[in-house]
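Hello,

Following up on my earlier ticket. Below are the two sequence lines again, exactly as submitted.
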Amino acid sequence: MGEVVKRPSGLTVIETLIAATLFITSVMVLVGLYPASARAARQSQGHLMATYLAEQELEFARGRGFDALTDFGNSYELEVRNNGATHEITFTTTVTVKEIRAGLKSVTVTVDYLAPDKFNRQLKMETYVGSTTPTS
Amino acid sequence: MVLALLLVAVSAVAQQGLGTLRQARVEESKKQAVLAAEAAAVDAMEQLVSDPTFEGPVAEVEMDIGATYSATILNNTTAGGGTQFASNGAEVPEGCAYILAQGEMGTIRRQVGVLVTRGSASALGIAVGVGGLVDMSGSKRIAGTIKANGDIDLSGSTRIEPLDSSGQLLSSKAISVSGSTRIDDTQDVLARNGVSGNIRGAYEINGSDTSVSTEPFINDYRTTNSLLSGEKGSVLPNPDPTVLLAGAIIYDDDGDPLTTQGPASPDDLNLGGQVHYFPYGLDFSGSSTITGPGTVVVGGGYPMNFSGSSRIAQVNLVAIRGSYNGFPNTPSNDASISLSGSSRITGLVYAHDGVDVSGSFRLEGLVIAYDSVTGNFTTSGSTRIELDSTVLADIPGFEPWADGFGGTGGIPAGSASFGVVSWERL
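Thanks for your patience. The regenerated structure is below:
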């Protein structure tokens, strides 16, 4: 009878290396994704702030009343907080008024800002104001 | 197993970041859709202002930003319609219109429902409406709004009180006050060329106003209470002389025949509910009494003068430039009213060329001085005016202004032909 060679239990060096590589790669991907995800979160916060600012500027425009409605602009420095880190973003708003017809004007707000990802972003919102539009 | 857990963790982290960004963009689209719907409502309201019978719809409009809007209208402003219901079930009472406006941004749609009513903002509450300037000295108390195309100068003690929510000081030029001046905290002081002096109270004091409130009265001698296309503001009343004098009792200085030119100086007058026309002017002196109801008119640009103590109950005083039945042939263009001494009047005091009051003056009604150059209102002495705009409804030729100055059907176009009852985001 031939001698039975019993394979020792456990992983071979090769298997261990492959498993370790996969684990390390995954962890690296995870670690790498985390800042990207945090950046996206900050970006979304910047976007939301730009949206609210645009809405606020439109309310200002309405409050001026139809006859006094002309182009104007503002600059705002606001803080964005995310996971304990704070970033300051400068938002520049430009309100452009265009007459659609007698008694009706289009008001467009453009919000420009340098997003946390260091890209210039822009958001636009538009509504109409009429000579009978309530101001509040 | 470990790998699976790691994959789940990786995807969760990625999802979180991307999800919040997507959410922010959705939020932007939602707000833009609401703004587009509001634009539709505003568009529809403007069309209703231009044409109160407008029944829509407002066809789809693409805004510069890419959002679109449209609106449907249930116009129930025609009398006799009873309560109706809009397509979304909203109740639209008689006299109202309902705008169901929708805006779309991408795949997101939002609606706004606006209920408006005609005429709610029609009562301008003008106690003193002047085409020229206002110059008031002495102690004065006015319940209602003072509005002038020219300057308003107030000296001495001034108190402006709100009556039916109107007690403002409005000038298309400048306002200057000296002495104690008090305005109610709910009321505005607005002028286009500055406000000077110390004013207590007032909700807003603005010397650079450009709103429709300080838009000059339209006083180009039109005899209709309606605006031409593109006009703003309100039309000062100007009666058609043929309507005003159609059933008038006509006087000259000595009765019939109507040939002698010169102001009449009658004794006490009992008007008996009629219009009494003095084509060559009128002089009252001493302690005179005119008993109403009724209307006293001087025409041809001649003045109406009262001196002494006048008690003029339920009487309207009207001085117009227009002539009647061909006389007088040469109007003097001094269609003014002058009151000196103590005057107590209930009714309208109206002159094309100015109203001048000296001494104590009590008025329940309103004062109108029409002309841009000569239509001034000046007072000295103690003055008390309490607005009662209903007097206009009883004077022939003034009825179109009974519900307000300017616009269709007495509605002050350019300000708010339709008052907003409710404005809801649905």
